[in-house]
Amino acid sequence: MKNPLNKRIPKELAGDFGKYIVIFLFMVLLIGLVSAFKVVGESLQISFEEGIDTYNMEDGHFSFSEPINDNIVSSIEEKANLTIYDFEYFDEDIEGTYATVRVYKDRSAVNMPCIMEGEMPEADNEIVIDRLFARNNEIEIGDIIKLGGRELVLTGMAAFPDYSCLFESNADSMFDSTLFTPALMTEAGYDSIESSHVSYNYAWTYEENIPRSDKAAADKRSKELIDILEDVLIDANEAVVDEAIKAGKLVALSECLEKIEEQGMDPAMFDSDAGREMLLEQINKALEDEGIDLTEEFEEVLDNYPDKSAELTVEDLKLAMKASKEDVNAAQEYIDNIENEMLTVEDYLPRYMNQAINFGIDDVGSDSAVIILFGYIVVAVIAFVFAVTTNNTITAEAGVIGTLRASGYTKGEIVRHYMVLPVLVTFIAAIVGNVFGYTVMKKAMTAIEYNSFSFATYKTVWNADAFLLTTIVPIILMFVINLVVIANKLKLSPLRFLRRDLGKRGKKKAFRLNTKLPIMMRFRIRVIFQNIPNYIVLFLGIFLGGMLVIFGFMFGPLLDDYAKLVVESRIADYQYIVTNTEVSTENASAEKFAMTGLNTFDTKYKEEEISVYGIAKDSEYVSADIPAGKVVASNVMMDKFKLKNGDVIKLKDDLNGTEYSFEIAEDYRYDAALALFMNIDDYRTIFNESEDYFTGFFSNEEITDIAADDIYTIITIDDLQKLSNQMKISMGNMMIFMRCFGVIMFVLIMYILSKQIIEKNANSIAMTKILGFKNGEIGGLYIVATSVVVFISLLLTIPLIHGALYVLMNEYLYVKIVGYIPFMIDKSCYIKMFLIGIATYAAISVFQLIKISRVPKVMALKTVE
Amino acid sequence: MSFIEIKGIKKHYGEDESRVDVLNGIDIEIEKGEIVVLLGPSGSGKSTLLNIIGGIDDADDGYIAINGEKTANMSEKELTIYRRKHLGYVFQQYNLIPNLNIKENVEVGAYLSDKPLEADEILKTLGLYEHRHKLPNQLSGGQQQRTSIGRAIIKNPDILLCDEPTGALDYKTSKEILKLIEEVNHKYGNTVIMVTHNDAIKNMADRVIKLRDGAIRKDYKNEAKIPAAELDW
Lengths: 865, 233
Prior knowledge:
The complex is a heterodimer.
Chain A: H1 8-15, H2 17-54, E1 60-64, H3 70-80, E2 82-86, E3 89-93, E4 100-104, E5 114-118, E6 126-130, H4 131-136, E7 144-147, E8 150-159, E9 180-184, H5 187-191, E10 198-206, H6 215-236, H7 238-262, H8 273-289, H9 296-304, H10 314-322, H11 325-336, H12 338-341, E11 345-350, H13 355-396, H14 398-407, H15 411-452, H16 464-490, H17 494-498, H18 519-530, H19 532-568, E12 574-578, E13 591-599, E14 609-615, E15 631-634, H20 635-640, E16 648-652, E17 659-668, E18 675-679, H21 680-686, E19 696-699, E20 711-715, H22 717-720, H23 722-760, H24 762-771, H25 775-816, H26 827-854, H27 858-862
Parallel strand pairs in A: 4-9, 6-8, 14-18, 15-17
Antiparallel strand pairs in A: 1-10, 1-11, 2-10, 3-4, 3-10, 5-8, 6-9, 7-8, 12-19, 12-20, 13-14, 13-19, 15-18, 16-17
Chain B: E1 4-13, E2 20-30, E3 35-39, H1 46-53, E4 61-66, E5 69-70, H2 76-86, E6 87-91, H3 102-110, H4 119-126, H5 141-153, E7 159-163, H6 171-188, E8 191-196, E9 207-212, E10 215-221
Parallel strand pairs in B: 3-8, 3-9, 6-7, 7-8
Antiparallel strand pairs in B: 1-2, 1-4, 4-5, 9-10
Helix pairs in contact in B: 3-5, 4-5, 5-6
């Protein structure tokens, strides 16, 4: 025979429909959210992995100072077991804007675009750009884009697999989907634009794939490739080096011969072998003693090619004596322009280090763990809500339970009976929530991800893990929490149930209240103490809901504040990075500096690039007292890595593997970036640079006397604000979502628990009615008591939320993102949270007042129990 | 050997100054099928004794044996099974489940038995058949108490324990309930132990035990037993 108590279940459900439907809907929403997040995240991950083959995603790319010939390509391919693709591009700004378009010549074999809307370009005046960039700039298909003096028609919007996140440069702290887009034209269209910002870029794919997660293997393979590239470059530059050596010798010998002639000696006199040897010896000595040096470039060449002897020979002397003035000038010119003659690597970026490829997909993956954890915390709170309400029901039904137990019902049967509804509601909510998650919420979640990142299309992948995590685990949570609370409540003997003696063993004496307090106040205090378990759960719910609301509000002011800080603490209005050290300017505000990027080690925090500056003595722009041999660190760097004065930070150069240690003397206020500052002399020594080496100029004025070709890049205030702007855009929808969820949580917790308090006290309410209290007065007793608790909870949770979010930001957000935004919660966020909480409770109070007015007086008379 | 053997039962509540000795060594033997009435004023220990017989309270000393099976040696689990198999309980408060109808409330008792009696037959016996689809709050106190008796007897228990079954009822309804208990006893042969402070009820009993201050003051066979219908007070 089925347990007839089960017949109660649907009646119980119908009898307290309000409570169950609110919890059910909330759980559907919650589980839908978690499920959608997990499914979308994992589907994107799988699609990304599949996209590596589908779109033939690069394993990396490098660019050279000039196009490389087929021999070099074959040589690298053979030695490194990879395939190289010509992946040339140019950067041009859309006319009249600061938006940079990176147009690729050919993407037919590697990094093939996924057309999201429209079609590929066919005519040479057609172009395809990134979907997200187009949307952010409100560019539609058919619109005209002016680029490099041409008017191009937008025919399609695409997702480029090597730009799922729109990082213009890998050194950028944040991507920018409003000011940068990759693009594709036909080859003829590409050739029709004459750009001065061409990059001779090449993508490569290895013959053998390694898992994306195996960073160590990727790192090892990357280092091997760097070695191979070095060898290949040495071979490729051999002829240039030979010529440079010859030219260098010619120039040096000519200068020596001139000096010998000035001394009245005729070089021709030394026609004999012995004479020539003597002359050579004298010249070599003269070169050494008088510092008649080969040019710097020549020395560099020699340094790099130690097997090439610079020693002068008789043959060199013969050539020098025969050389005309024009020959010597030509040789000097060759040496002066040696950099242009040499083939060098301009950029090298393996896929595993490419933020444009990895940032988005890593972000999607890492978020799901936090969302699931958040989901579990909320389920646990709901489980406690259930447990508290069931506890109240058990108290109300003590007599029945006592009778059943006395009649032979086991404790287990009663526990199971009270467990059915919470578990059943959770189970159905989990199923419906999953369906909801896979349909409606999936679309919302997809919109959030696609609002931040330029992912290609994906197909939903059924995920057993996601189902397990969003169905089984919430049910287990609900089951365990309710089991513990209900079993604990039901462990009392049948007799105590019959006597309705459900308190702790040994009856507590009623605590005394000062009789000078008005009776109504004492009444309210008693109501509060009588409902402590309800209020604990209420407090927990307000804490969680409040945290969500604050989280939803905090990023707007935080990012605005950060943008302000960045501008306030900027080093200069402009930072010009130049292409060579010959560049000079007459601008009085310009000050030379040196800069390079070094990487942190991948420890607790994500590996990221630190800007290391060499600052001129008595700098106008960096007013820090930098001791020799030490560095000062930007305040954000100190904050993020929890550094203090005297700490030593280790950084590495990823290109050559060199490791550096820097002792931090003090911090320097610079909010825009993680940066170290040292004296420029120290910089030159540490990085083995020449005495006059520099990278660019700080300036508060726009410098107009440097040729565009000599400027590598200009960092302006807009660039410094990229991080905050982008975060605002990408987090916008999620923040609104968080706010709504927080408010719903407020409503749920406040509604259910305040309803419970009214129901629990229905007899007393009926009795007070009989005594002659008006509904408003009774509301004043019960609703005001809960109002006080809500008010105090809202206030008390503020410091707790502040602390919790601080921990969350430090232990999660800062670990996950590159860059740093100082933690700050604007007071207005707390005020908003507080007011929302009060408003929510005010609205719920109206319902409770109605509920109080509906409690029949006869209840107090009828129920003798 | 008697069906129910109660030997040397002692029970106290509280300690030191607040110690109250509720039962001071009770010895009773009850035969199968008897209607036993436990009489006594408030605080005499009759409900405590009933609860100890029912296995929902422990004795400090002594034992209860049903068919030779001592309850004192039983674990909580075994006690539950003992109650399930042998006992039916009727209380002054009916303790019906408010959102189950009358038939369902009776079936709650049937669930506990391997061979329960027919619910509809019980409802007819109790005069509740036509009310079987109503909820408890739609019935009078007497009808609710009859339902609670139905819930207790549907599993055909060996012993029916009734704690002040008419305590919350008026005269007429009380008599109906007592008639019903008597009828059940005749029909199913259960042993009935009924606690009451209503002296008149002793007249329907086979055996009367009077308690005062935790001790038996009188224990006698009622030679002048009358049907419940003829009771008057």
